[in-house]
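dumping the sequnces here before i forget
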Amino acid sequence: MKIGLFIPCYINQLYPQVGISTFQLLQQYGEVEYPISQTCCGQPMANSGCENDSIGAIKVFKKAFEKYDIVIGPSASCVLHLREHGVNIFPSAKEVIDKTYDLTEFLFDIIKIKHINATFPHKVALHKSCHGLRGMRLESCSERVKRAPDKQKKLLKLVDKIKLVSPSRADECCGFGGTFSVTEKDVSVQMGNDRLADYIHNGAEYITSGDMSCLMHLEGLIKRQKLNIKVIHMAEILASNKVMVPEEKEILETSNIH
Amino acid sequence: MEKGNSTHPVGAEAFNKDKKRVAWHDKALWFVREKRDKAAHQIPEWEQLRELAAQIKAHTLSQLDLYLEQFEKNALKNGIHIHWAKDAEEHNTIIADILENHQAKKVVKSKSMLTEECGLNPFLEQRNIEVIDTDLGERIVQLADEKPSHIVLPAIHKKKEEVGALFHQHLHTQKGASDPAYLTQEARKHLRTKFLNADAAITGVNFAVANTGGFVVCTNEGNVDMGANLAKVHIACMGIEKLVPSQEHLGVFLRLLARSATGQPITTYSSHFHRPKKGREIHIILVDNGRTNQLAKPDFKSSLNCIRCGACMNTCPVYRRSGGHSYNYSIPGPIGAILSPGKDLKKYSSLPFASTLCGSCTDVCPVKIDIHTQLYKWRQIIGKEGHLPKGKKTVMQLTGKVMGQSKTFSMMSAIGKKILGGPKVLAYNALNPWTEDRDLPSPNFTFKDWYKKNKNNE
Amino acid sequence: MSSKSSIIDAIRNIEKEEVHLPRIPYFEGLSYDSTAFFLDMLQRLGVEVIQGNSIEDIPYYLQEREFDSKKIFTQFSELPYRKTLKHGQLESIQLSILNGKVAVAENGAIWVTDERLSNRALTVIGEHLLIAISKRNLVWNMHEAYANISIHEHGYGMFISGPSKTADIEQSLVKGAHGSKSLIVFIYE
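..and the predicted 3d for all of it:
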């Protein structure tokens, strides 16, 4: 299987380690390639009411990924955006979008993994990102009487020594919301702080999620307030036993590309 | 976008000045949301009921002209007077005329979001008619000279001490008294005299039944039944979307409405009016006021499914932390944010952006309105019609250009990193509000850098 | 053009796809014992329950209570209370006794109508309310309830499911907002 690795723009730039973990995880299941021409799914523009300004991004996406058997990205939000709106914005991208999946979907639905070589001896709270939760139905949500398969929770339970803790509000939004975090800054910050208080109160050492954008917002608040909790993408936990070879580590620490 | 305090972020910022109040408001509404969850989970066929309700509404709307005519015919047969109003002004004028015909000067009114939408109270007050809102929450905000901040819980933003002070001033309750039971009893006494002396009663309508020509109004307090049954004239105001085909459909909606609204299995009173008592009159006003416009928009017509339960407000993390008044529209919250742009796109252009698109509103909605999808779609229309704030539009055009070309993207990443000390190509100058409260990581390499260096080693 | 025609025409001019009216399926009750469920629901709704043999027993159950029988209204011709009232007398009513037609186990609501109701406000204006309902008229849910009544037969009818209440002041529940401060459900054979 030829896997196209889709790394959302902000992960590429701000959280490269999430990309690395995803890459390492996927390598077990096929030939993974990261087409370097990729840019972004176009969601920031589209959610701001500027779908037309996002056509270029989807065109680039189509061109970059059409040659792969399957396209995987560590972000429910970006994948969902392509699925729900991308086809409408740029119809000829349909074929590519139809074979694009979020990492959780890939591991749970396509590979159907039952075991994973990963250890994470920490108390972890799963932050159910709204797009994964309600858009993709990866997890059950408290509003609905129907249950979903709880894919992310099941994947995390495969990790050795992990202890999952539940927040008091099982699935409240973190308040990121793309440009919402800037235009509606007061509410956004309050929502984030409320989530953090909940996770901290319930004893979590780490907050994990399938979407780094939620975690970026939460981490921004954690660091500014020097709170005693950390964020980590699910891919990093699932790839926790992929010990990096020393040369790579060196590159990570010393790299100063520009 | 308008200047002044009319945009949502401005209202939200003001509300967020008092952090304790925000937390209190959030908690009060979350409590209602949790009660709703429990009530919904008691019904195994809950999701099926939602689907049925949505289909019944969609069907009714697809033949609304026929159902309206059927309803009118049957209501007339029942001895009910029917009036048609194109807009708010006509609605208000019809009511003023009915009141004048009966020389009615004292009116009691139960909760009706439609009369809020039409600005009925100030219209009648200008004509020297006393209009008393009889729902306790609405009476509180009326005495405070405010607007309801929630469609089911109009005074949810008020603390009991504030209500106590208000009642002390207007109803002469004991100074400093804030016990809800005491205050409610005093309001009961005060409003009983209003009910007993009212010339006319105005109520809303929850459901109107086409094939019987009658209508249903739901309350917990009993104020509809006090008002409408004591006064000589009962005027019921309804949007044209309130119809259901027949009585069997009421079963679906009455199982959903109160569970969604407050977590009760049903409201205390579900009152069905079909004919006036001898010597009395019932008038129904069928109001359009923008509804046919909304019906003509395929992407937005299902917003007319709304049964005004308020569940989307209770669940909305933004509403809970910004308060109903920040929306500056008669119906606040997510549903207000998809109804209001249809009325005035420019004026309400900030409302569809008052959401993270988390989708919780869509999942609680008992009539399955895809609220968050409609919020997204209104955003596109606002963008196309040029009602976005200028800075935002410019940033998005620029970002779109960067993201649309691989080479520019790489170049901008590099420049961004050099100039800004970090790769902030995502947000440019719009980043300032972010950094007031939040940090951003600044790793010294990108994934792309790592991949280029490592792909051959793998 | 009249407002009616302009509204109807506006709707008619909208291109609408046909949407099928769904059939409402049969929904089962929430447990195997509707009576037990009903009683439990009434308790949760803050309703007092009296179980008796027949309507005629109601005065017996009321004699211990401090009601002035002149200030009791009833829809039942067989009961020795007031059947008609003038507008000015309404407010003095201590207890309204209404004839429940259908009771719904799932939500505790009972259907009453304006039959022998000299003033419709008597459903709410009395200080307290008693609704008598026969065990035989208990159904599971609202679908069954509507299948058993004809709403247009009566000028006015309502489902009542407890004392009047409000939570408009800081979400704290208070009974007796405008309507009856308490509800007694008298269940007979």
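The radius of gyration of chain A is 18 Å.
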